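Model the whole thing, not chain by chain.
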Amino acid sequence: MSQGSATTGRPNYAAGAAATLWLLVVALPLWVLINATLKTRPDYTDSGPLAPPSHPTLQNYTDAVTSGFGRYLLNTLLVTGAVVGIVLVLVPPLAYAIVRGRSRATSTVFRVVLLGLAIPAQAVVVPVFYVISSAGLYDNLLGVILPTAAFALPVCTLVLSGAMRDITTDLYEAMAVDGASAARTFAQLVLPLSRGGLSTIVVFSALQAWNGFLFPLILTQSESTKVATLGLYNFQTQYGINVPGLLAAVVVSMIPVLIVYLFARRALIQGLMGVGGK
Amino acid sequence: MAQLTATAPSVTAPRRVRRPGGPNVGRPGIGWALPATAFFAAFAVAPLVLVAVLSMTTWSGLGPPQYAGFANWRTLLHDPVMRTSIWLSLVLTALGVVAQTPLSVLIGVWAAGPQRNRAVLSAVYFVPLLLSSAAISVLWRALLDPNFGVPAQMQWLFGDGNLFGHRSTAIAVLVFVSTWQFTPFHTLIYQGAARNIPQVLYDAARIDGAGRVRQFFSITLPQLKNAFITSVILMVVGGLTTFDTVLILTQGGPGTDTTITAYYMYEKAFKGFDFGTGSAIALVLVVASTLISLVLVRATGYDKMRSELEGL
């Protein structure tokens, strides 16, 4: 039905129609979103989200950034940077040990990591709350950073060890013949040759941190530790009536991700496929 | 996050503990794995154990938890909201699978094809995947608002326009929004699998005179079996544990009409400050999603990891 033209040589109209329909389902709400943010508040109240703005304005965006949402974005940026940092420090040595280690312990570690893939973060929010508040990190950005990074580890380890397996044995042997230590092999061979995998885990963990909602929701409460996703939720409950302003904040929170998507689409999609597909 | 879990079986297979060849010189010791393992154990594995412990305690968030035996469990057993929440979770999960699977199979197989406009369209398709649940839910909450949203202007389609005010329409909204959000991810799974179907199968079918529809049902669909199981398991685990969407879109309402188990856990623990009962509900969720995944894996023979390429 929708197998492409390679199989039969003529265009597949049914699949094309289905694809176009889904394109509308995805793109229309996004278009309505942008449209609504360009309207003034009275204009939105009068004519709703669908009608084009009578006097297009960018006021909602300036308001969004100056109303405290800028601060939330900064917090999100901080959390994202720290999570990516932790992942980059912890995951490469782990993946290296999993791929090249000879001890029974490393294969046990690998199994634990795989088990970790099956732990839904939602199911452990209460104990994470307990651990973080016992450690005195409640309402502290570090308290959000640590569990967010921990839950990004399994996927990142899986992706990176996949990339490291592609390095051929010959290269390792050449290093060993030269008498290179594990550390030197890691620095001079493994890291440079797994650049693709590294960029995938950077993009993936950054996305997880940037979009994270669950841990900030239960682990922070003050204005000074609020991240963007939580800010959106609070805006909605507090100033529910200023819809164009709220939606402008939604757009602002999306922009950095969309920019990354433009430049690192391949790394991102590959990371996601490595997780779900093969 | 939960959507990206539980792909363990597909990765363990090709791994061997002892690999042939290569000297032992310059091999990393277990020390290389320790920091990450310790970190992961502290923040992900330990909580999993702790959730069982906390389910046997009363804890209001202040002071130390008090041992309470099975009190929380007895309360839950007689709690009508808990019972309906389990039913609701199953209904929402099932509706999600039914809505998302045909869509993602079709789009995934299409996106795996060689059409010229495919790359551009796929780039747009995957946009929802990049957005946070919070942003998506806030967006749809605003678009579907009964007073200022789209329904208020299209009453011929939406009736009184209060989609969040009735049980069936509130459920429909939740299913629709999660379909909008997660179909791209499952599309990726099917796209990857469809790309791996050997062209020779289609060539053989064509020689036998099979048309496109016949090829789709006799070759493409059977070849997507493993992708199907992976995708459904992820939908089940994800569906059972979703609560951010419910929190932002319906707050479990009207009344408790969309209070699914995961949201009920959040409400008990973080709104009612009854962390003991919250933990008990969380444990129910973990056990339920693990069991369902195991049953799916067993029932479909996925655990034997039979390759779809057998006999080629």
